[in-house]
Amino acid sequence: MNKVLSIIGLLSLLMIFSNSYADGNPNPDGKIKGSVAEAKTQTPVEYATVALYCADNNELISGAISDHLGHFKIDRPKTIGEYYLIISFIGLEKIKSNVFKVEKGNSNINLGNFFFESSSNELDEVEITAKKSAVKYQIDKKVINVDKQITSEAGTAVDVLENVPSVQVDVEGNVSLRGSSGFTVLIDGKPTILEPSDALRQIPSRSIENIEIITNPSVKYEPDGATGIINVITKKNRLDGLSGIVNTNVGSFDQYGGDFQLSFRTNKLNFILGANHNKRTRPGTMATERRTLFNDSIYYLESFGDRERGFTRSSIRGGVEYDLSKNDFISISGRYGDWNMNTNSNLRYNEWTKPVSDIFSYNSMEHTKRGGTYYSIDGVFQHTFTKNDRPKKLQFADSSKMLSENKKPGKGEDYKPAIKHVLNFEINYRNRDSKESSTNELRTLSDELIGGNKNIENGPSESIRFKLDYTKPVGLTDKFEAGLQGRSGRSKDATELWFYNLETSKFELIDEYSHFIDYNRNIYAAYGLYAGNAGKFAYQLGLRTEYTNRKIDMIEHDEFIIDRWDYFPSIHTSYNLPSDQQIMASYSRRIERPRGWWLEPFITWVDQFNVRQGNPDLKPQYIGSWETSYIKNFGDNFFSMEAYYRVTNNKVERIISVYQENVMLRKPENIGKDYSLGLEAMLNIGLFKWWDIKLSGNYYNYKLNGELSYFSGDKFITLLFKSTSTNWNSRFNNTFQLWKNGVLQFNSRYNSSSVTAQGSRTGYFTLDAAFRVSFLNKSLTANLQGRDILSTALRESTSEGLEFDSHYKYDPKSPVVALTISYRFNNFKASRHTGQNGGDDTDEL
Fold first, then answer.
1. β-pairing, 141-145 with 184-187?
2. If you ran DSSP here, which 8-state letter would residue 597 be given?
3. pLDDT digits over 405-419, tens only?
4. 206: burial class by Cβ within 10 Å (0-12, 13-18, 19+)?
């Protein structure tokens, strides 16, 4: 508790200092304010260029860029006189305001709303050169601009996340969010049937517009995931006619791939077609050492050799969007894909026992293949009610009309686009045919087959989800949201185990370890949320309730049934301080439900030396999460600091124990509680016009308390334990604008060591670099990148418990070099908005 108060105190000191600084340096000149939106859709326009001109001589005085709500602010000129604005954005008609006067005084000048009309014939006449922020903070999430991460262009979403605040990626490509693998992945606001890390491996980085990191989601989102949500927003096109983008890449270690996306838009219709195929491999060397005690003997096992993991993915997607009317929108889209993850290893094993000292040496060759096909269908219907609560004065498209009717602009007021009155319905269907096989062969040094096993696990799974969301504006800036959501999923898995018989020289089916399981789960939810503003203070309060019905059915076991109600509150607040500063605080309660195979009560042989077993009695993990943050913007730069505290009840860990002679068992158990108390900071600053840096760090104390249970011979032993570590990680990004179309970037990161319930893992450092150059008016782009160029990504971990200890080391081959070529035609540009739950939601306060 003292540590919580210390961090809150530190933030308070920063805020007091910032307020003191602001009070001592007031802006004496005020601001010229307004907002920009599209006339047809009433959608705010982000990154519109707003230029201020003197009416007497048409001289350019100053300018600004609109934010994600379409707002802009320009320093009020010190010279009294008449001025006008020119507002422009690619693909839209320029707006020239009527002349307005700047008189004596320091009051703000509010010019109201400006509305763009569509203009596809001006695409070649406007060039936007303003910088887009690498990270944008909203009341309940961080939005990461992927275009800033050029060192990961040839990779996937996993490679992008290696350089994203709050996220860590291990050498296997497994992602964790603030130290936990328990998070939810959304793609364009929609769930995926794949496991989180598997889903992220399927998404080419070049198809990503931005990534939302939601560490304290509101009740509008499903509460699954201990540490929150990673929402990947893919690129979309908003230009009329045919346009698209094509990417291809090739690299070391048998890396190659490509993807394309086409869009054909008419007045009311938009057709989308895309596809991708990519292959990546992660070769390396590994070594293990293990000591176990069984039946009064000590068994030693060591291995070393080569291992390679390969990822292959292909998919095709398409969809159609149709504006039924001014207020009605419908879309249907689908995706079909195939993915495979192969692991091949060739290891030398040495075994010996004490008191016996003879060493038995042999080779172990393992091949694992995991993957299958999947498809999804998504439907969306949205109705926007004509009547809303927008004040009449905000309906004017020309600021001069507002000025004439109101005589003069108000003082100190912000005119915001009205929140839409919307009813949204979505339905999603997911289907996956999963196949997994693993073959392990043991051979003498003269290549004679002396043993082995083969595991096969196949089974389809499907899910259907629906949600009905309603948003009602309350006044100009407040809103009420409510919704109903449901999801129903079913999976069937058939597992088989085959052992090699020396007498018959064949693999034979072992019925004892072959099983069939039928898993059904239904979850129904309702939520309500109110969000509003009180001056500079914004807030968002919500409550969600869920009913869960789950049944696990096996022929040789009893049914395992759950009927449960859960409640999940959330609260988010923010306060705008002077001088472009903001503080935010939030709380949410979440749940981490056990994964499907964690519930299987039978033994599954992974290889000759390892088995796993599920636990149908696992309780879900319940997480309470508190956050507070401070943000300071200065021009295109910003500084942020976040303090967080997370408590996990019914903490689940995969506990290791001795199963048989030289065989280890891994089984998930509820072991107790864990606590994470941390501070995360980020600094984005442009040192010069040609040099930008981004420095971020995460420092947290991790504590794990509970009890571990083991079988030792015929005894059941329970041990109390407490593990504590101070963890930290940092990222340092340097981007150099060598010339107009040439960019050089270096990304470095360090992850410190950490503890688990039964051991620890070491820290590591990596450095990536990339050089990108554009041709043909930026339509053609080439990017040469190198990952882990210093070959420092060595990973090590240790585990120990009752009657065993082990050490693991993996050294990936590096550096990885790749070249990516991209071509855009017809001025393909990603959409500036993506609607419900995806991208820049204009209804967020």
1. unpaired
2. G
3. 333 333 333 334 457
4. buried
The pLDDT value given to residue 725: 86
Torsion of CA 152, 156, 157, 162, to 10 degrees: -40
- Residue 730, classified by CB atoms within 10 Å of its CB into exposed (0-12), middle (13-18) or buried (19+), is middle
Number of residues in the chain: 845
The residue among 725, 733, 680, 720 whose CA lies nearest residue 701 is: 725
What are the distances in angstroms from CA 662 to CA 358, 444, 753? Answer: 16, 18, 28
Structure tokens that stand for 120 in this block: 């596809």
What the block records as the tokens of 229 is: 């949500």
Give the sign of the dihedral formed by CA 709, CA 795, CA 361, CA 347. positive
Whole-angstrom Cα distance, residue 72 to residue 86? Answer: 13
* Confidence category of residue 503, pLDDT binned at 50, 70, 90: confident
DSSP single-letter state for residue 513 = G
Rounded to whole angstroms, the Cα distance separating 146 from 164 reads 9
Query: Beta 190-191 vs 241-251: how paired, if at all?
Result: unpaired
Look at the alpha carbons of 192, 185, 255, 735 in this order and tell me if their dihedral is positive or negative: positive
Buried b (16+ CB within 10 A) or exposed e, 311-338: bbbbbebebebebeeeeebebebebbbb
**Cα–Cα dist 421/401, whole Å:** 26
> Is the Cβ–Cβ distance between 170 and 309 less than 8 Å?
no
Maximum pairwise Cα distance, the chain:
101
- How many CB atoms lie under 10 A from the CB of residue 565? 8
Residue 660 has pLDDT above 50, yes or no: yes
Q: By C-alpha distance, which of 305, 251, 239, 603 is closest to 443?
A: 305
Q: Are 745 and 147 in contact (CB under 8 A)?
A: no
Q: Which two tokens stand for residue 494?
A: 């058939």
> pLDDT, tens digit, for every residue of 529-571?
999 888 889 899 999 999 999 888 877 667 788 899 999 999 9
C-alpha distances (whole Å) from 493 to each of 303, 596, 704 are 32, 10, 33
**The tokens of 673 are what?**
């509680």
277 CB-near residues (< 8 Å, 6+ apart): 257, 258, 259, 313, 314
With vertex at residue 288, the alpha carbon angle to CA 605 and CA 495, rounded to the nearest 5 degrees, is 10
At 415, the amino acid letter reads Y
Which range, 326-330, 658-662, 776-780, is most confident?
Answer: 326-330
Among 195, 194, 189, 198, residue whose Cα is nearest residue 157: 198
- At 366, the amino acid letter reads E
Q: Which of 301-305, 390-394, 611-615: highest mean pLDDT?
A: 301-305
Alpha-carbon span 324 to 381, nearest angstrom: 10
Question: What string of DSSP letters covers 148-205?
Answer: G-GGGTTSBHHHHHTTSTTEEE-TT--EEETTBS--EEEETTEE-SS-HHHHHHTSBG
DSSP string, 628-659: EEEEEEETTEEEEEEEEEEEEEEEEEEEEEEE
- Buried b / exposed e over 415-437, threshold 16 CB at 10 Å, is bbbbbbbbebbbbbbbbbebebe
157: left (phi over 0), alpha (psi -120 to 50) or beta: alpha
Choose among 261, 276, 285: nearest CA to 157: 276
Would you place residue 297 in the very low, low, confident or very high pLDDT band (cuts 50, 70, 90)?
A: confident
Binning pLDDT at 50, 70 and 90, where does residue 336 land? Answer: very high
Domains of the chain, start order: 25-130+399-418 (2.60.40.10), 242-385+421-825 (2.40.170.20)
Angle (CA) 420-423-426 rounded to 5° is 125
Give the pLDDT confidence of 310-330 residue by residue, as tens digits. Answer: 999 999 999 998 888 888 989
CB atoms within 10 A of CB 297: 12
CA 637 to chain centroid, in Å, comes to 23
